[in-house]
Specification:
By secondary structure, this protein is mainly alpha-helical. It has 3 helices and no strands.
Length: 175
């Protein structure tokens, strides 16, 4: 057998056993005091990461839910605003219509009042014309006959003169 010339390459059974024993003791100590706590820290960190991811998912779901609620509220607010605008338009139209009706009623009332005043003034004017015609008739009859007429003659002459006059032309202009 060829013995190695280098002492590092030589197989020494005692050294080998002590190296294996030291390795196993170191492995046991590391496993007991280092690997366990390191694994525990790694497991805890893995669990925290898992919890953080779950919380992030929950937060994302909550944000989506809040966003959807927000959109619904905005839609409701727009709908309410549109309803308010429509109601204001209806109210404004009703006010315009009521003002138009009141104006028309006031115009009609004034027109009727003016018609009544015109009719009353026309009636007064016709009565005045009849009186003046009667006086003129009496004056003319007195001058034509040359005598003073009594009350019965006055009345008869006035009635004849009034009957002969055409007041329908004046009354027709009223209508």
């Amino acid at each position: 057998m060829v013995l190695a010339a280098n002492p590092l390459i030589q197989v020494t059974p005692g050294l080998m056993i002590w190296t294996i024993v030291c390795f196993l003791i170191t492995l046991f100590v590391l496993k007991r005091f280092a690997f366990g706590p390191i694994q525990k820290v790694i497991d805890e960190r893995r669990e925290r990461i898992r919890e953080s991811l779950a919380e992030a998912d929950n937060a994302r779901q909550e944000a989506r839910k809040l966003l959807e609620e927000h959109r619904k509220l905005i839609a409701q607010a727009r709908q309410q605003a549109e309803e308010i605008r429509a109601e204001v338009r209806r109210d404004a139209e009703a006010l315009r219509e009521r003002a138009r009706e009141e104006t028309e009623a006031d115009r009609q009332r004034r027109l009727e009042e003016t018609k009544r005043q015109i009719e009353a003034e026309t009636a007064r004017s016709l009565a005045q014309i009849r009186r003046e015609v009667a006086e003129l008739t009496l004056l003319a009859a007195t001058k034509v006959t040359g005598k003073v007429l009594d009350q019965a003659d006055h009345k008869r002459l006035i009635e004849e003169a009034v009957r002969e006059l055409d007041f329908s032309v004046l009354e027709g202009s009223r209508n």
